[in-house]
Design goal:
The chain is 53% helix and 9% strand. It is of the alpha+beta class and 655 residues long.
Length: 655
C-alpha cells in the first residue's frame, strides 16, 4: 500500500513495485483474519491477564490462574476498573456506583446509558449484555478488543504512511510488548487506539475513488469522529500526546500527497468538526461530572512542566525485565518505573540522517515531523523547563513527565518502522546505530544498578545492551533472511521483558466464585439502590460489592464529588479531603464518634470515619455495612460472617 507522497519526485526505484504493494495488502488481510480467530478463541475460553485472583483466600481453589501469578501492584485494574465492568455485567448498568460521585463515564469510559457513549466505547458497551450472556466470556471479549485492535491498526496505518508490512508488524509487536503496557494493564493501548483509528479512517478514505466514495466517505468520517471523541476521555495524559503525534504524521502524509491532498484535508476537517459536536454532546450529558472534575483539587487543577528524569529512567525499558520479581526499584515501583522503547530514538535519528539524501521532499517533511515530536518529547523528560513556561504549554502541561516517559517510546517505535522501510541501510550505518544504542544502554544499565536497583548485575547490563545492539544490526541488514532473524530475536527479547508481569487468568475468580460473593449478592436481593446501599471498611472489600452489582455508598469516586458529600460534611470543613476525582472511598466505623471526620491519607484515597448509627447515613439510604471486626451498636443486626482475601468479614444490617 506504499504510495509515493510527491508525484513530482517519483522515480522507478522509489515507487513500491506493484507486487510488493499487493503482498502487503494480502498480508494485512491475513493478519486481520488471524486476529479475529485469536479474539474469538480467547473470548470463548474466558482467558484474560487480569490480576483478580489477588483476592483469592489462602488454600482456596477459586483463583482460576493458568500461568503466572497475580500482581498486587496493579490495583487500579483488578480492584477498580475490572470490578466496575463486572458490576455492569451483573446488572446491565452503572446504577450500583456510589451517589457520592457523578456518572463514571468521563474517567472510567464505561457507558452509563446514553447512545453516544455506547457508540464511542462499543467494546465497553457490550458489557451491558451481561444479564443475558456468560459473564466470563463477555468480560474476555471486552478485555482483548483493544489490544488486538492495536495489533491490527499499527501495521495498517504504518503501511499507509509508507512502511512495509513486516517492519510494521514488528512495530505492532514492540508496542504491545512494551513494559509500560504490561505494568499498566494495557492502558497505554487504550490511549493509543484513538489516534490510530482516526489515522486509518483518514488514510483509507483518501484512497477511495469512484462511485463508492459517497458511501465510504461518510462512513469513515463517522467512525473517525467517534474514535477522535475518545481522545480526551482515554486517560488524557497519554491519549492527548499519542493522538496528537500520530494524527500529525497522518496530516503531513496527506498534505504532501498532491493526488489525495484535497480529499484528505476535507476528510480531516469533517472528522474534526463532527468529533467536536459529539464531544460537546457527551460533556453536556455529563455536565455535573465534567464540572466536578474541572474544579477538583486532583486531577482538575494539576499542571506539569518538563523535568529531567535522568537517563536511567528515560531509557530503562530493556532492563525492566529484571524488575518482574522483587525487589522494587528504589524510590518507586515497577509500574511507575516502566517505560517503552525510548532508546530507539538513537535509531530514529540515525535512520533519518542515513536516508535523508535519498528521500523525496514529502518523505523529508514526514521525517522532520517524526524528529520534531521526538525531540519535544525527550526535552519534556530530560530538561528542566522553567515552570512559568512549562505549565502554560497547551496540552503538554497536562502530561506529567513520568507519564511522558512511559509512552514516548511507543511513538518512536512507529517512526523507526516507517523510516526503516524506505531504503536499504548500508552496513556502516547499521553498525554505527547498533554500537551507539548498545553504548547508551550500557551507561543506562550502570546508572540503574547504581541509583535504583542494586541487584542488577553488570553482566546482565552487558548482556541486555549487547542483545539490543545485535537485534538492531540484524534488523537493519539488507539481507531479508538476516533481518527476519533479527525480528524473531527482537520479539523473543521483548517478550522476556514482560512475560511474567501478568498472569493468564481464566474466569472471574473470587470476585464472582467465592462464598463472600455469594453472600453479598444474595443479601442484596434485586440490587436496586432504592432498597438500600452498602458500605465497606476497606478499599479491597469495595471490589467485592462492585463486581456483583451491589449498590454502594463506599466505592470509587470516578468523576469527581457529587452534592452527596454535603450530607456528610454540611459545612464543607473537609472539602480538601473529598474534593478529588478517581479516589477510593471507605468508611471507618467508630461507634463512639458523634460527627463524621473525613481524611485523605493518600492522593487517591478518602476515608470517612463515622458512627454506623450516624443520622447522615440514613439520609444517604445506607442499609448494610461490612466490617473487618465485630461491631456493637443499637442500630446494627448481624446478618452473617464470611472470609474475603483470607480476612474475616462481618455483614450488618442498619435499622
Amino acid at each position: 500500500m506504499r504510495d509515493n507522497l510527491d508525484v513530482n519526485e517519483s522515480t522507478a526505484e522509489r515507487a513500491a513495485p506493484p507486487d510488493s504493494e499487493l503482498r502487503d495488502r494480502r498480508n494485512l488481510i491475513r493478519l486481520f483474519a488471524v486476529l479475529l480467530v485469536i479474539w474469538c478463541g480467547l473470548s470463548l475460553a474466558a482467558i484474560t491477564t487480569s490480576s483478580i485472583s489477588s483476592f483469592a483466600s489462602k488454600g482456596s481453589t477459586e483463583g482460576g490462574v493458568i500461568f503466572g501469578a497475580p500482581r498486587a501492584i496493579r490495583s487500579d485494574e483488578y480492584a477498580r476498573s475490572t470490578p466496575l465492568q463486572l458490576g455492569v455485567e451483573a446488572v446491565g448498568s452503572t446504577r450500583f456506583v456510589t451517589p457520592l460521585t457523578n456518572s463514571p463515564f468521563l474517567i472510567s469510559n464505561i457507558p452509563s446509558g446514553p447512545l453516544l457513549e455506547n457508540l464511542v466505547y462499543p467494546e465497553k458497551a457490550i458489557l451491558q449484555l451481561g444479564p443475558w450472556l456468560p459473564d466470563g466470556q463477555l468480560f474476555a471479549a471486552s478485555f482483548w478488543a483493544i489490544p488486538l485492535l492495536v495489533v491490527a491498526l499499527v501495521p495498517l496505518v504504518l503501511v499507509l504512511w509508507g512502511a512495509r508490512f513486516w517492519p510494521a508488524l514488528l512495530a505492532a509487536a514492540a508496542v504491545v510488548l512494551s513494559p509500560c503496557v504490561a505494568w499498566w494493564s494495557m492502558l497505554p493501548l487504550v490511549a493509543l487506539v484513538p489516534g490510530l483509528a482516526v489515522s486509518a479512517c483518514l488514510l483509507l478514505g483518501s484512497r477511495v475513488t469512484g462511485p463508492r466514495r459517497w458511501l465510504w466517505w461518510p462512513l469513515l468520517t463517522a467512525v473517525g469522529a467517534l474514535a477522535c471523541t475518545r481522545i480526551p476521555f482515554s486517560y488524557a495524559p497519554w491519549s492527548l500526546p499519542l493522538a496528537a503525534a500520530v494524527i500529525a504524521i497522518t496530516a503531513v502524509t496527506l498534505f504532501c500527497d498532491r493526488e489525495r491532498r484535497r480529499v484528505g484535508v476535507l476528510l480531516l476537517l469533517a472528522t474534526g468538526a463532527l468529533a467536536a459536536v459529539v464531544t460537546l454532546l457527551i460533556l453536556w450529558q455529563n455536565a455535573a461530572a465534567f464540572e466536578a472534575i474541572q474544579q477538583s483539587l486532583y486531577p482538575g487543577q494539576r499542571r506539569s512542566s518538563g523535568e529531567n528524569l535522568g537517563l536511567a529512567r528515560v531509557f530503562a525499558a530493556p532492563f525492566e525485565g529484571w524488575m518482574q520479581d522483587p525487589p522494587n526499584p528504589a524510590g518507586g515501583n515497577p509500574s511507575e518505573f516502566s517505560s517503552s522503547w525510548t532508546f530507539l530514538a538513537v535509531a530514529l535519528f540515525g535512520l533519518a540522517i542515513a536516508t535523508w539524501r535519498r528521500s523525496t521532499r514529502a518523505e523529508r517533511v514526514q521525517t522532520s515531523v517524526f524528529l520534531a515530536i521526538t525531540a519535544l518529547g525527550l526535552s519534556w523528560i530530560l530538561i528542566d523547563w522553567p515552570a512559568v513556561i512549562g505549565t502554560r504549554v497547551p496540552l503538554l502541561s497536562l502530561v506529567p513527565p513520568l507519564r511522558m516517559q512511559a509512552i514516548l517510546g511507543l511513538f518512536i517505535t512507529l517512526g523507526v518502522a516507517t523510516l526503516l522501510s524506505r531504503y536499504p541501510v548500508r552496513w556502516p550505518t547499521a553498525t554505527t546505530i547498533a554500537v551507539a544504542s548498545a553504548a547508551l544502554l550500557v551507561v543506562v544499565g550502570l546508572l540503574i544498578s547504581d541509583q535504583y536497583l542494586k541487584t542488577l548485575p553488570a553482566l546482565v547490563v552487558l548482556l541486555v545492551a549487547g542483545t539490543a545492539g545485535a537485534v538492531l544490526w540484524l534488523l537493519f541488514n539488507s539481507n531479508p533472511k538476516v533481518a527476519a532473524g533479527g525480528g524473531v530475536l527482537a520479539v523473543v527479547a521483548m517478550a522476556a521483558t514482560v512475560v511474567f508481569v501478568n498472569p493468564l487468568q481464566q474466569g472471574l475468580g473470587p470476585l464472582r466464585n467465592s462464598a463472600a460473593a455469594a453472600m453479598v449478592s444474595g443479601l442484596a436481593g434485586d440490587k436496586q439502590p432504592s432498597n438500600g446501599l452498602w458500605a465497606a471498611h476497606d478499599l479491597m472489600v469495595n471490589p467485592l460489592l462492585a463486581a456483583n452489582g451491589v449498590p454502594m455508598l463506599s466505592g470509587d469516586q470516578w468523576s469527581g464529588p457529587s452534592s452527596g458529600w454535603r450530607v456528610l460534611d454540611p459545612s464543607g470543613r473537609y472539602e480538601e479531603a473529598w474534593n478529588r476525582a478517581a479516589a477510593w472511598i471507605t468508611f471507618e466505623w467508630d461507634t463512639e464518634l458523634r460527627a463524621p471526620v473525613i481524611t485523605a491519607p493518600a492522593a487517591d484515597a478518602i476515608v470517612v470515619r463515622i458512627s454506623p448509627c450516624d443520622p447522615s447515613l440514613s439520609a444517604l439510604n445506607l442499609k448494610h455495612l461490612l466490617s473487618g471486626q465485630p461491631l456493637q451498636a443499637t442500630c446494627l443486626t448481624e446478618q452473617g460472617r464470611t472470609t474475603w482475601a483470607s480476612e474475616d468479614l462481618w455483614v450488618y444490617e442498619r435499622r
